[in-house]
Amino acid sequence: MTDRKTLRRRVLLELGDLKVLTATANGTDQTFIDAINLIGEPNAYIDRQVLFTGGTSANLGVINQVNGSSKNSRSLSLAVTLPAATAIGDECELINTRGVGYTFQDVHQAINKAIAEAARECTILVTADDTFSQSAGSVAIPESWSVFSGIQWQDSIGRWRGIVPAPRLAGPGWSVDRVNRAVLIGGDWASKLDGRPVRMTGATDPGPLNEDSDETPVNPDWLVAEAAAILLQSKYLLHPTPQAERTFAMLRQKANQLRVFTISRRLANSVRLT
Question: What pLDDT does residue 99 have?
C-alpha cells in the first residue's frame, strides 16, 4: 500500500518539478523561511504553489501561492494568510516551476485517473460475516464489493468449512445472483447451514485518494509512470513540441511495460459483480 503523499512526490520528481522545503527559522502567517534551499534570485519562486505537509498542525494540507521571494532572507511571501504562523521544522512542497508546471490539483487528479484505470485489475481482498437462513435462501453481498469469490460456514465446534459452487443458479451449493447482489445457497446445503454463521470472501476496487494519508494497493511504479504520462500528455496537447512529444512517449512506454504489475491474483470461481 502506498499513500498519496509518497505517490505525489514521486510523480513530481519524475517530472522534475518538486522542491521540498524545511523551515530553518520561525516565520509569520504569510512567510516561510528555509535558509538552505531558498537560494534563488529575488522573486525566483514567484507564482509557484506550496503545500504544507509537516509541522504546524493548523497549516497541514493548506495549498498557497507564492507572490514573492527574498534572496537575502531566504524566504517566501505567500499570497493568502495561513491559519497559523510557520515555525522551525515545518515542511512544505514547492512546485509549478516558473508558473508553467503543474498544480497539486493536476497531480492528484492524474493519480486518481490512473487508479481508476487499474481498478478492475487491482482488487483488494475482503471478507464479511453473516448468518444464513434457509427461509431466505440467500445472503446479501456488501454493496462495496466488486468481486465475489466464495463462502464458508462455521460448524458446531467453530471450524470454518467450505461450500462448493453450484453447477447452476440456485443449484446445490453457492451461486451468485448479480441482479440482486446476493449469494444463493441451494440443495442440501440450505438445510445444513440454516442458522449457521457464514463468511463470504470477495474483493473491492481501489478508490480515489482524497487525503495524503489515503493509501492504494495499485503498483506504485506503474502508478507513478502512468500519472506522469497523463500529465505530460495534457501538457503536450496544449503546447505540442518535439521535446514534449518525446518525453511523453518515453513515459507512456514505461507505464505500458509496467502495466502487468497492476494485475491482482484472483481466487478460483470468482464472480465479477460490476
Answer: 65
Residues in the chain: 274
Domain boundaries, the chain: 18-101, 124-204
Q: Does 158 or 98 have the greater pLDDT score?
A: 158
CATH number, span 18-101: 2.40.10
Specify the pTM.
0.89
pLDDT value at residue 100: 65
pLDDT of 12: 96
SS (H, E, C) the chain: CEEHHHHHHHHHHHHCCCEEEECCEEEECCEEECCCCCCCCCCCCCCCEEEEEECCHHHCCCEEEEEEEECCCCEEEECCCCCCCCCCCCEEEEECHHHCCCCHHHHHHHHHHHHHHHCCCCCEEEEEEEECCCCCCEEECCCCCCEEEEEEEECCCCCEEECCECCCCCCEEEEEECCCCEEEEECHHHHHHCCCEEEEEEEECCCCCCCCCCEECCCHHHHHHHHHHHHHHHHHHHCCCHHHHHHHHHHHHHHHHHHHHHCCCCCCCCEECC
Please compute the mean of the pLDDT values over residues 233-239 and round it to a whole number. 80
